[in-house]
Each structure stands twice: as C-alpha cells, then as structure tokens.
Amino acid sequence: MDKTYTFTYRHTRPEELAAPDLQLVERARAAAAAAYAPYSGFRVGAAARLDDGEILTASNQESEVFPSGMCAERILLYWLQANAGGRRIGSLAVATGSGHRECYPCAACRQVIADTEKRQGTPIRILMAGTTSVTELDSARLLIPFRFEL
Predict the structure, then answer these.
(1) For 105-141, what is each residue's pLDDT tens digit?
(2) Which of 3, 20, 21, 23 is most buried (CB neighbours < 10 A)?
C-alpha cells in the first residue's frame, strides 16, 4: 500500500521574520563566526531560545581526527541536557555565516533534536537560515518523519 507524507513549512526572507525569530537567527549567525572549521570551511551556528527567554548558542567544532568533530546543534543540545536538564527549548535556529545557502541539520542532529523535543514534551520550532532565506518548521518531528524511537 502506498502512503503519502506531507507537511507544511514556511519559506521567507530573514527581514520578514518576527523580531524574536530574527534575533535568534542573528545569534546563530554570530555563533557560526566562532566555529572551528579549518578542514571543511563550513561554519555553522545554533541558537536556542529557552522557556524563560534565555538564548544559548554553540558552533560546530572540527578535529584533525575526522570525523571526531561535532555539529553546532548537538553541541548545544548535549550541553543543555548535561548542565540544565529539564529546561525547555521553544525555538532553535541553525545558520551559516554570510555567503551560504540555508543550513539544514544533518541526520544525526535531526534525530537528537527530535529526541530532545520528545523528552521535553513540547514542540521545538526550527529556523534554518541562510543569508537571504529562512525555512521554518513548527516541530522538530517534521525534520525526520521516520525517526528512531525506543
């Protein structure tokens, strides 16, 4: 039996975002500037707005012992779980530095974001930003429809 999976998302320009979302994207872009990416040259930043309004950021970090580096999204989410477990993320922005297309989380990050959303019991809005456009999803579940679950 064939089935169809569809979902709704928004695609817009950064300047059309609501002020809090634009601020989150800008914080992710700023975090990308701090990335350590001498091998790929691809700098990525992530910014999460927590339930109390605080914004946390992280950037990707590469290693000479490839693939031992880590994506910005997982660095941020693992740090949050290890240091402030129980706090909820309302929105998560992922962005590259200037001159790049929109940045979409890799499959491993998509799974970890979905795990985080499941654990906190509330949706995480996702903003995937490039220099001239942003794709918005209302829930991390939409990033990986056939995600692994125990």
Answers:
(1) 999 999 999 999 999 999 999 999 998 999 999 999 9
(2) 21
- Tell me the DSSP string of 8-58: --EEE-GGGS-HHHHHHHHHHHHHHHT-B-TTT---EEEEEEETTS-EEEE
CA distance 143 to 126: 9
Among this protein's residues, is 62 annotated catalytic? Answer: no
Distance CA 90, CA 7 (A): 20
pTM for the complete prediction? 0.93
* Residue 150 to residue 145: CA distance in whole angstroms: 15
Model confidence pLDDT, tens digit, residues 48-91: 999 999 999 999 999 988 778 999 999 999 999 999 888 999 99
Given the residues 26, 54, 73, 102, select the one marked as catalytic. Answer: 73
Domain ranges of the chain: 10-143
Give me the CATH code for the 10-143 domain, please. Answer: 3.40.140.10
Provide the 8-state DSSP code for 147.
-
> What residues are paired with 96 via a beta bridge?
44
CA–CA separation, 66 and 39 (whole Å): 9
